[in-house]
Design goal:
151 residues; mainly alpha; Arc Repressor Mutant, subunit A; 3-stranded antiparallel β-sheet; 6 helices
Amino acid sequence: MRHAYHEAVLLVERVHRHYLEVIKTELDRRGIQDINNVQALILYNIGRDEMTVGELTARGYYLGSNVSYNVKKMVENDYLVQERSPHDRRSVRVKLSEKGLTLHKQLEANMEKQVAGLPTSGLTQDELQRASEVLKKLERYWTTLVSYGGN
């Protein structure tokens, strides 16, 4: 069990890193150099929503990097618009700008292309659903460990 658990932990990180490389390749192919792959994934996950940096983190868009820094860079490069909440002046909300929406559409089209290519990889919908179920169980397990101090 220990070996399988350790292998799963390593695979989660490695698969995530590989997916970030897929995004980087797409950005490079399009000649986009003012946003990195982590920021592009955060942008993609924001989509048409409007949210605070805290909500980005809570929804799991943290991706092992500093969300505040990435949001700041995306605002500077005109991918995100920042607005103070009218209800709580301390809270800052972000949403995609026109430039951000354009990149989101490009990333969405690339995602659809990837989905269309899945059958040629030998992956089935059932396998992907099962993988998602297992990853959700791991997520719940790790959340429980954090909630109760590690053990």
